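Hi R.,

Here's the chain you asked about this morning:
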Amino acid sequence: MNIQQRVGVFIDIQNLYYSAKALYNQKVDFGKVLEVAVGDRTLVRAIAYVIRAEHSAEQSFFDSLKKRGLEVRAKELQTFYDGNKKGDWDVGIAMDVMRLADKLDVISVVSGDGDFAPLLEHVKSLGCRAEAVAFGPSSSIQLREEADQFIDLAELKDNILIGTARPQKPRVQQKRAQPRPVGRSPKK
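And here is the predicted structure, written out as tokens:
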């Protein structure tokens, strides 16, 4: 990692929350996740995307995210006429990434959602390094393959889950650059 790289971190809170709950029945320390995503590099922006669910404790949760250095973007849970509910930030995250890409060297999407694979592909075409941070067992293969680097939070669970405290260093899955033939443009 280059310490001079400017990093933007975009955290899909619901994705990580439900992954940790399903895999380990524990909660995530999002401050520690932010530290893992940034490393020794320069943080430019860190945005946490949340859905308001009208729970009494959610404001204190949002405040704790802010105290950990995250800008909180909240959206109301949509309830449809038939009673179905929906709440996701996929388009909002993608729009923020695109707005900030020219100010960043690294885009770190903290989510295992495969819908972000085309976004990572696009930011790479803009010259940014594309990274994904998520729990490996619940993350999309397409997302992991598209990322220049994937950090598996499952390998760091003792350090980033609340109530556990064995610090570990992340194992990084790095792709090797594929040489391109000189004088030929890549095939689409």
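One quick note: The longest strand covers residues 42-52.

Cheers,
M.
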